[in-house]
Amino acid sequence: MFPNPKSIFYLIIGIGLLLFQACTPEHTMTTKPNIVLIVSDDQGWGDLGINGNPYVHTPNIDRLATNGVQFSRFYVNPVCSPTRAEILTGRYHPRGGVYSTSRGGERLDLDEKTIAEIFQSSGYKTAAFGKWHNGSQPPYHPNNRGFEEYYGFASGHWGNYFSPMLEHNGEVTQGNGFIIDDFTDHAIEYIEKNTDQPFFVYLAYNTPHSPMQVPDVWWDKYKDAAIDTTHRYADKEKMDKTRAAYALCENLDWNVGRVVDKLDSLKLLENTIVIYISDNGPNGWRWNEGLKGIKGSTDEGGVRSPFIMFWKETLKPQIISQLASTIDILPSLMDLAGITNPYEKPLDGVSLKPLLTQSEEAWTDRIVYSHWNGRVSVRNQNYILDSENQLYDLSSDPGQLQPVAQPSGAVFSELTKAKDEWINSVLSELDRDREEIFPVGYNDSKYTLLPARDGIPHGGIERSSIHPNSSFFTNWTSTSDSITWDTDILTSGKYKATVYYTAKPSAVGSMLQLKQGTNEVSATIKEAHDTDYINVEYDRSPRDESFEKDYMPMEIGTIQLDKGHHPITMKALEIKGPKFIEVRLLVLERLD
């Protein structure tokens, strides 16, 4: 019996439709791997159990490393914002204009395209949770750099880790609980809502960066712990700071475990690349496997970072000894996801896929560069030429204990030449003397946040700390005092102005004015809000940064802002009592 021709026809049509659907971009996108990129803050190479530290408990991260790929020679930058810029762009941070960690020097140039923009253009959902540190005001804000969802803080560090003031997609909000747990909660919720399409989640934690605020449940495990005092820098070690750092590292580990467990329960683990990395060396003198230097140093201890990549059943467990760097993360993920860079600027990094997949493709030895504040070190597979042009043989002296007395002319010449060329070709692009002006009223954003960090005090007003990132203005006693923000108004129009402040009862009745050129608005302080420093009982080691207070929002009113480079000035028209308000933040909401 022959088949019905009509049945054959419909069968062919059906097969054709299935093949067509399989070839459509929507279908292709669902096969792309999800990516969860986790970055810790000030966690050194030695702050993990997997790297030999017997005093810190990190079983979840250790398990990721054991079951995934570990790099034993992976390099970041000596401080936060340059590393984060290189993660975002795959390009050396001087090319992106990053030269500082605050007051605008941390901002990533607007002509640089980010990893979020690249993956978003290929159909990915994109979200960032935690510390940003590459520009606070739009269009430098993460929501304007490819991240559809953002929850965290855009500054360099934060002064309170317990239900702090944060922001959600540009709007001020209140955190819920311990900050790392809170960021993880939001990341997990986002993952749960986006299981039907590929996602890129940037989970940028802010610990064990100081202040060393630790919840009791973690601190109690370490507060009386015996800690190694025989390591290289034991005489400089602050024991409670070390204990707090380890407690914070264990909290990080617990949260990493939560993320991985959630991916597993959602049956996403086989199609998700999980990366774990720190942004620089340890923020204190503690055990670091004998490596020279800590955070801020271009030596091994300041820039050698854990780098773990886990992709269940796709990447085989291995330890890779070849050199790699933050600039390699973007090209590697693009290669693994089958994405081509849609933008013109070339990447400085290279894809690590041949190493990750144990390909037989030849791997060329390379040179890795480390820079901070004018200091540059370079290293190849065996040697480092430090910032003072001393040569060390890392294969026999990984701790840089003794420079090579009579270095090989060929090796010394190669690294010296490479350093000079990098300084002249890459570092020369960095403008450390540029004028930092803060944009207001970007067309695609409703809110602009102007923290005290970006303001300039005049008269007797003082900053609460020499470290500006999480500071507030205090000691305002005279009507001749003022605060200014050097701003570039991008869109003329009406803006609602809100100040976050504290004030003693004696300041009630004082009058505040906000002024731009001839435009002004004023308001009377109607409510006292005088708080002590908050959550100081969780500081386990003395802090250098500013303490935080509980700041109250007060709507000043609506002000017209004219387009152009115009400073915004905050003044006291009248002061009742001995002191005026303390100022943490000015929020401008575009109304037009």
UniProtKB/TrEMBL annotation:
Keywords: Calcium, Hydrolase, Metal-binding. It comes from the Bacteria. GO terms for molecular function: arylsulfatase activity; metal ion binding. Transmembrane segments: none annotated. The keyword Protease does not apply. InterPro entries: Alkaline_phosphatase_core_sf, Sulfatase, Sulfatase_CS, Sulfatase_N. The keyword Acyltransferase does not apply. Gene3D superfamilies: Alkaline Phosphatase, subunit A, Galactose-binding domain-like. Residues 33-339 form the Sulfatase N-terminal domain. Belongs to the sulfatase family. This is Arylsulfatase A. It comes from Algoriphagus locisalis.
